[in-house]
Amino acid sequence: MSKDQDDQQTIKLQQECNIYTISSVKEQILEAAGNSPDICLDLANVEQVDACFLQLLHATNNYLFEKKGNLELINIPEDLITLSDKTCTPLPSRESLNEQLGETAATEPASEDLPTES
Amino acid sequence: MSSNEDLNAQIAETNETTLINNQYLSFLLGNEPFAIPVTRILEIIEYDQVTIVPTAPERYRGVVNLRGKIIPVIELTKVFGLEDSEITKRTCIIIMEVSLDNETIMIGCMVDKVLIVQEIEDDAIEETPALGTIIAANYVKGLSNIDDRFFTILDTDTLFSAQELIIGYDAGLSQSTFTSTEATH
Amino acid sequence: MNSEMDENLSIFISEGNELLEDMESALLDLESNPNDSESMNRVFRAAHTIKGNAGLFGYDQIIDFTHIMESLLVEVRNGIVPITSDLVSLFMRSKDIITSMMDSLVGSGEVDQNDLDEATKLLEHYLADPHAAALAANPCDEDGSATQVETPTGIFTINLKLGTETFRQGFSIKAIFRELNELGVITSANLFMPDIPKLDEIDPESCHLSWLLLLESSCQKQAIADIFEFMDDCEFHILSPESKTEEYKKIISLLPNGEAVIGQILVTSGALTEKELQTALDRQKETGSRTGDILVEQGDVQPEVLESAIAKQQQTRAASSQSIEFLRVNASKLDTLINLVGELVINGERVSGLTENIDDDKLAEAVTEMNETLEEMRETALGLRIVPIDGVFKRFNRTVRDTSNELGKQINFEISGGETELDKTVAEKITDPLTHLIRNAIDHGIEKPSERELNNKPPEGHVALSAYHETGSIVIKVSDDGKGLNKEKISNKAIERGLIKQNDKLSDSEIYNLIFEPGFSTAEQVSNISGRGVGMDVVKRNIESLRGNINVESEEGIGTNVIIQLPLTLAIIDGFLICTENEDFVIPLDMVVECLRLTKEQTKEMEKHNYINLRGEVLPLIDLKKHFCLPKTLENEPETKNVIVVQHSGKKTGLLVDSLHGEVQTVIKPLGKIFQNLKGFSGFTILGSGNVSMIIDVSSLITDASEKQRDSFMNQPHGQNSNETISSESAEI
Question: What is the tens place of the pLDDT at every residue in C287-305?
Answer without folding.
Answer: 767 777 777 777 777 777 7
